[in-house]
Structures are given as structure tokens and as C-alpha cells.
Amino acid sequence: MYNIGILYPNEPAENMIDYDALRKKYNVVDLDENIEEIDKVHAVFMREEETSDLSTICDLIFKIKKKSDCYIWIATATENSVGKLVYLQLGADAVFGAHKEVKEIELIMDNALSRMGQKKVESSSTKTSFGKKDIFELNPSNISVFIDGGKEVVLTKLEYKIIEVLLKTPNTAVSYETIYQKIWNDDLLENKQYRVANVVYHLRSKVEKNIKKPEYIKTVRSKGYMLSI
């Protein structure tokens, strides 16, 4: 099930989408402006309540783009909001005017997420295999991984990127710094190890049978992580 983050810079005047209908299909996560749980979501929906929210939303887009590749959807306060083009230029995937039909918004969101997880015929062009036993098979079209020929596990983009990095050098330790630079490619954050460890924790919860005794993603003390295959 995909996770959709809901983020309002201010208290929303009214709902733009039907949350009850949304929760039947997706896991809705309430986010705050610190976006601490952004690594957990596949998409973010933001609502511009007033035109004065423009600078706040721009800052949030910057923060989200720096930490995640998730979809970003924004609903504007007015039909001809001055922020519409700005949001799109900063990387928003879709901007909805104030009078956009609720059903239309939901269909746009559904279609985007379904493309993310759309299952296609398995072929060498859609799977990337590593290791002699092909224990892990990445499926870039679905942002997922097949483990030891078993069921397909859908990942977030950050989880997928990390396992892709580890798969390039199986059974070899990869440092926290190397993983961080491969995924985020910046030097602004001081606690890089925590950022990497947080994503790995969620990744392990999906691919390991026992997260306390991981079989595949091993911690290499004072170094980083190693994919054992």
C-alpha cells in the first residue's frame, strides 16, 4: 500500500479531497513542516490556504526535493494563484486550482501512483539482477524488489536507491558517507549517519524476516552497511 503525506502550512478551511475514500486505497500520513517522516511517503499533498502561503510552500518544496523523490501535489487558494507556475518550476508534479473537481484530483493522484506500482511483464529490460544466486532482483519500473524468487516488495524511492547502492558491491561494506552522497549528494546535514540508518530501518522492515537479526542487510560496525548474498 502506498503512503500519501498530507501537509497543510495552515489550518485548512475545507477539504480538497475525500480522506475516507483515500484511506481505503492508501495509507494517509499527517506531516508537519519539519517533514521528519518524508522518507516514509510516496507522495505529498499540500494545500495553499492563502496566497501568503507561497513562500512557506516554496520552502517546503525545497526541503522535500532535497530529501525525497516522492510526488508533490499542491492545491492553490485561488484559481489563478500566482504560485502555480512557481510551484511547478520548483518541481511540483501537479498544481490544482481552487475549483478543480475533487474526483478529478483523486483520479490524477490514483493514476500517478498506479504508474509507480504498475506490474508489467517481467523481462530483462525491467529487472536488474545482482549476485550469482539472483537473491535480489530489482524492478525499476515498479520501484520494487523480488527477494530470492519470492513475492515482490514495493519500496519507496529512497529505499530502492539504497538497496541499489548496496547491490553494486555485494558482500562488501559501504560507508554511511558513501551511501549518503549517492542518495542525497549534499554536505549540509551534519547527522548523515542517522538519515541513512532511518531509511535502512524501514527497508529492513520490508525485506527481512526478523529485523532484529537481519539476514541480508548487515551492519558493519563503525563503517556502514553490507548486503550479504
From TrEMBL:
Matching Gene3D superfamilies, A to Z?
A: Winged helix-like DNA-binding domain superfamily/Winged helix DNA-binding domain
Domain named OmpR/PhoB-type is located at: 125-229
Keyword match Cell membrane: no
Q: Superkingdom of the source?
A: Bacteria
GO molecular function of the protein, one example?
Answer: DNA binding
Residues annotated as DNA-binding are 125-229
Keyword terms of this UniProt record: DNA-binding, Transcription, Transcription regulation
Q: Which GO biological process annotations does it have?
A: phosphorelay signal transduction system; regulation of DNA-templated transcription
Protein name as annotated: Transcriptional regulator
Q: Which organism is it from?
A: Enterococcus plantarum
